[in-house]
Design brief:
Chain lengths: 113, 114
């Protein structure tokens, strides 16, 4: 069965600092991996996805993530945090079209001025 | 395109009342699902559907009922509301049989059970 673990329920960074949000997955087959962002009082929006092409995936708003099979990780990074990045971020995994997407518990990112 | 539309956006119920949360999508997606979001719990799958007439249970189905009579609509019914069902509910849709396709989410329904 597939699962996702997000390390750290809350991460706080200074504006302009590196953002690193951690995600480790478990899957019995090569996975498809996603990062979603949720701004306050809104639904989830897709940031980026890994679908077995390039291992370094670039998404919207300057975010990127690297798929590392040996570490079963898909960490999300951004070189320089902006105040507008404050939101909740969810990592999710899917291993086929026949099973529902599984989400991690989320990481709330705070950006300090 | 409207995408995924959820109604109502907010609702307050009394314990024991029933209600239906509406979800509609205009993208001709086969796959639709309902999640609930609670603090510290992430998103938990309630029910999902891979097409009209086909539904299945997710992780937390108890107390909820669904049906899928059309491709566009996937309502979620609370049969007898309980305080433990106070949550934010999200509906999502995507293309089926292609796990590479992302899910599209509605803006959520915030439900309080008194």
């Amino acid at each position: 069965a597939q699962s996702v673990t997000q390390l750290g329920s809350h991460v706080s960074v200074s504006e302009g600092a590196l953002v690193l949000l951690r995600c480790n997955y478990s899957s019995s087959v090569p996975p498809y991996l996603f990062w979603y962002v949720q701004y306050p009082n809104q639904g989830l929006q897709l940031l980026l996805k890994y679908t077995s092409a390039a291992t370094l995936v670039k998404g919207i708003n300057g975010f990127e993530a690297e798929f590392k099979k040996s570490e079963t990780s898909f960490h999300l990074t951004k070189p320089s945090a902006h105040m507008r990045d404050a939101a909740e971020y969810f990592c999710a995994v899917s291993d086929s079209g026949n099973t529902p997407l599984v989400f991690g518990k989320g990481t709330r990112l705070s950006v300090i001025a | 395109n409207a995408g995924v539309t959820q109604t109502p956006k907010f609702q307050v119920l009394k314990t024991g009342q029933s209600m239906t949360l509406q979800c509609a999508q205009d993208m001709n997606h086969e796959y639709m699902s309902w999640y609930r979001q609670d603090p510290g719990m992430g998103l938990r799958l309630i029910h999902y559907s891979v097409g009209a007439g086909i539904t299945d249970q997710g992780e937390v189905p108890n107390g909820y009922n669904v049906s899928r009579s059309t491709t566009e609509d996937f309502p979620l019914r609370l049969l007898s509301a309980a305080p433990s069902q106070t949550s934010v509910y999200f509906c999502a849709s995507s293309y089926y049989r292609d796990a590479r396709q992302p899910q599209h989410f509605g803006d959520g329904t915030r439900l309080s059970i008194l």
